[in-house]
Every structure is written in C-alpha cells, then in structure tokens.
C-alpha cells in the first residue's frame, strides 16, 4: 500500500504491523493528518486539532515499538474524541457559545485511559449544541456533512465522530450515546457503533448529564474487530462509577451457547419506517437465519409509550438542572435551549419521580424479556440521511413526524441500560448507508460483538468507501 493510503488501514492491522516492524505510528499519523487536511474542509468533522503534540507522541510510540515495549493495544493508534467529552489539552465546547473557551484541564476517564495506553488523540469532533440533537450543527462551528453525500447529515449527536471515521481521518472514535447518538450516526455513515451496557465504560470527569443516567460513551469504527479493540482497551470498573462494578459482573456471566434466539422488530407501534431501510434490514435478518440462528419476527413485547412520550421532558429537566448549576451558561445558549430549560423548570417533582420509576420498571421488564430472547434486531434509524442543516426529517414514508420520529428505535435502549450494536446493512438505491441494530441483555456486549463479527464475515462492508 502506498504511504498516501495508510489512512485506510483498520486499527487491528496497524496494531499488527507496528509489532512486526513493517509500519510506524509516526508514518500513520503523518498520513491521517494529511487526510484530515484533504477532506475535513468539506466535512467539518474535526473542530479542534493538536497536530504538533500528536506528532511528538507518534514519534515516542514509534520508539516504544522499536524497543518492543508498547504501552497497550491502543499504542500508536490514531483516535478522535467527541467535543462533548472533557479533554485535558483542548477546549470542550459542546458546540455552544456558553462553553466557547472552556478548558477543563483533565480528560474524561475513558479518554484518559486511551492516552495512558498510548492512543494518539488527533482532535475533537463536532456535535450539535449541548450534544442534544439528532443532527450535527451548532453556532460555533456550523454543520457537519456526511462523507457519502456532504449535503446531508451524518446524524447526531456523534456526527463529527462518524464523519471522521467514515472519511479515513482516524480508524477509531470515542463517541457518546444518550438516545441513539452512536448507533444512528453509525448507520448513516456505514460504520460499526457500540452503545455499551450502562457503565461498561465508567464515567468520571463529565459535563452535566441531560438524560438521567442514559448517557454512555463507546466506540465507533469501520469493523467489528476495531470496535472490539477500543471497547476492550477502555472497559473495566472504576470506583468513581459504582455502576461500572455491576457492568463488570454482568459481563462475566455465562451466556447461552448454540444458535441464538433473535427477535426481529421492524415497526414500533404506528411509527413510520423508510421502505428502503425496511428492505435492507429484512435482507440482513435473513443473513442471521443463514448463520443458523432462530429468527422470529414480531412486535417488541415491551410497552414503550410512556418513555417515548416522556422523553422531551427528561431533556428539558436536564437542561434546567444544568443551567441552575451553571447559570453563566444559560444566557449565551441558543434560544431553543433556554426555552427548553424553562419548560423543564415547570415539570413537577412527582412527575420526575414517576419517570424514574417507569425507567426502573422498564429495566426489570427488559431483564425478563432477555430470559426468553437472546438478541433483538431492529433498524438503527427510521429515516435515511436528510439535509445537514435541518434538525430532523419532517416526513418518513409519507407520514409527518416530529423531532424524534427518526429516532424511535434507539432511545428506549438507553433508558433500559442495555447494549446496542449498529452494523452496516445493504445501502439504499442512492448509495446511502443503512444500519441494523442488535440489542442484548445487560452485560452482553461481548456476545453482540461476536454475533456482529459473524454477520460481518458473511456480509462484509469495509471495502466500501465514500468518494471524497
């Protein structure tokens, strides 16, 4: 492979070639920075860079490999970090003027683990304001385009993260998912995105959460093996996040062997689904049947109506709490977020308690469901990508939808604390990526990755690249 194409290599290949001496972290870093220069102007994926520092770190990683002493599986691997996650030496703006100059001076725990393992942090990736929308545009940096069609959105809120990976700026990204913000963007850009079980990657040093404990962080990659590499490198409990101890316990439990019981859920109640996505997902489900798994088709045996109806209030209360804790952030914020916070201040305490109680009930009902089913398969998003400066698609399959019409398949997974893995399926007639979503019991992240790897071997996608 020519040096100009080193940006195409997956992280697992980089890891192997660093160890056998046929490639160096410095050469790869120079290649991905050149790739960033070539394509980021058209995408607006990376909004803060640290070229000088990362080149020095790449030189140090190169020396470590020459001495046979890499720090970890991530040593010398270029990554990006989403701009809603704290970083020690770059601003964390979260796409809002309220945080334009915010430099926390420390990393989110997972980002710190990545750095300690020698990962090469190229920069921060774009988000919608407060990382609170399903597209990626904000007053500071503008809109991010989808590498498959730069006039369209890559989704959100991890739009910059997926655009960077899909375009070859970096093989890996640390992203964030509060209601589908890893899985939907991954599906819109032809990538693998893992929303881990709650606290499988522990959280510490964070911005205020807007969605109770629904927000998790996880990997975005081009292949399942790369996603697993990053997930494994940064997982593990931390005392600062007690629920991470439950996640580690759940991950250690034995799983059912033999053919898996899959439930394919194509529609959630009367919510519309793009017909091309439906057709692509049916084709993907057939692949699982051909792999020997038991596939049932039917409705989701969970009542999600309350969660879907209460979802806007959860975010509104979160914004109100954030602004009450940081009043200096409210005035510079965009009007729609100030207005949402005012609505949140009107939500009663008993209503918040009711929402929390229903979340606990959903988690118990989900645990019971996964005693009868091993994996739920769904579309990852209800709509194909739409214009990048538009907050959501107003129509799906001829029906009018609201702000979360495209997102109905993902938020409940966050509320339930479950792992969800987005995988590429067959693209649309226009060549736009489409994704499926595998959902498992709490702690079954490894099983989902195993199933995803088998599916990828049967229906590979890593050879597909957008024409930039």
Q: How many β-strand stretches?
A: 15
The average pLDDT value, as a whole number, equals 97
Largest sheet: 11 strands, mixed
Roughly how many Å is the radius of gyration?
21 Å
CATH arch. level architecture: Alpha-Beta Complex
Q: By helix and strand content, what is the structural category?
A: alpha/beta
Order of helices and strands: HHEHEHEEEHEHEEHHEHEHHHEEEHEEH
Strand arrangement within the widest β-sheet reads: 1-3-2-6-8-7-14-15-11-9-10
How far apart are the first and last residues' alpha carbons, in Å?
A: 19 Å
Annotation field: number of helices = 14
CATH homology superfamily: Amidase signature (AS) domain
- CATH class placement: Alpha Beta
What is the total domain count? 1
Helical percentage:
25-40%
Form type: globular
Unreliable stretches (pLDDT < 50, length at least 5) are none
CATH topology description: Amidase signature (AS) enzymes
Strand content: 5-15%
């Amino acid at each position: 492979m020519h040096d100009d194409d080193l940006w195409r290599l997956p992280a697992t290949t980089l890891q192997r070639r660093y160890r056998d001496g046929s490639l160096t972290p410095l050469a790869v870093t120079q290649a991905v920075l050149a790739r960033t220069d070539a394509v980021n102007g058209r995408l607006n994926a990376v909004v803060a860079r640290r070229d000088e520092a990362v080149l020095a770190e790449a030189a140090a990683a190169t020396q470590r490999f020459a001495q046979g002493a890499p720090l970890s599986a991530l040593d010398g691997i270029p990554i990006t970090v989403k701009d809603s996650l704290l970083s020690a030496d770059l601003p964390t703006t979260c796409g809002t003027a309220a945080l334009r100059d915010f430099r926390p001076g420390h990393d989110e725990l997972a980002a710190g683990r990545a750095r300690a393992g020698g990962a090469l942090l190229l920069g921060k990736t774009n988000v919608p304001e407060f990382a609170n929308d399903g597209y990626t545009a904000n007053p500071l940096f503008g809109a991010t385009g989808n590498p498959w069609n730069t006039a369209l959105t890559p989704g959100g809120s991890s739009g910059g993260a997926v655009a960077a990976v899909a375009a070859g700026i970096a093989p890996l990204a640390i992203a964030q998912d509060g209601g589908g913000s890893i899985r939907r963007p991954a599906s819109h850009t032809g990538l693998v995105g893992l929303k881990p079980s709650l606290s499988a990657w522990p959280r510490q040093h964070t911005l205020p959460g807007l969605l109770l404990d629904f927000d998790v962080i996880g990997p975005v990659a081009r292949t399942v093996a790369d996603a697993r590499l990053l997930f494994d490198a940064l997982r593990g409990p931390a005392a600062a996040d007690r629920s991470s101890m439950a996640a580690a316990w759940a991950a250690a439990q034995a799983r059912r062997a033999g053919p898996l019981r899959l439930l394919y859920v194509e529609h959630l109640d009367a919510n519309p689904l793009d017909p091309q996505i439906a057709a692509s997902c049916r084709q993907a489900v057939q692949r699982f049947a051909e792999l020997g798994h038991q596939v049932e088709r039917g409705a989701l045996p969970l009542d999600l109506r309350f969660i879907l109806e209460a979802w806007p209030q959860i975010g509104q209360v979160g914004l109100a709490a954030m602004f009450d804790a940081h009043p200096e952030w409210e005035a510079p914020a965009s009007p729609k977020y100030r207005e949402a916070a005012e609505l949140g201040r009107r939500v009663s305490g008993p209503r918040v308690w009711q929402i929390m109680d229903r979340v606990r009930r959903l988690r118990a009902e989900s645990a019971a469901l996964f005693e009868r089913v091993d994996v739920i398969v769904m579309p990852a998003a209800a709509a194909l990508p739409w214009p990048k400066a538009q907050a959501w698609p107003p129509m799906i399959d001829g029906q009018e939808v609201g702000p979360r019409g495209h997102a109905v398949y993902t938020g409940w997974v966050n509320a339930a604390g479950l792992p969800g893995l987005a995988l590429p399926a067959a693209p649309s007639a226009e060549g736009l990526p489409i994704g499926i979503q595998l959902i498992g019991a709490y702690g079954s992240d490894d099983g989902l990755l195993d199933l995803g790897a088998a599916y990828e071997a049967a229906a590979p996608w890593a050879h597909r690249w957008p024409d930039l």
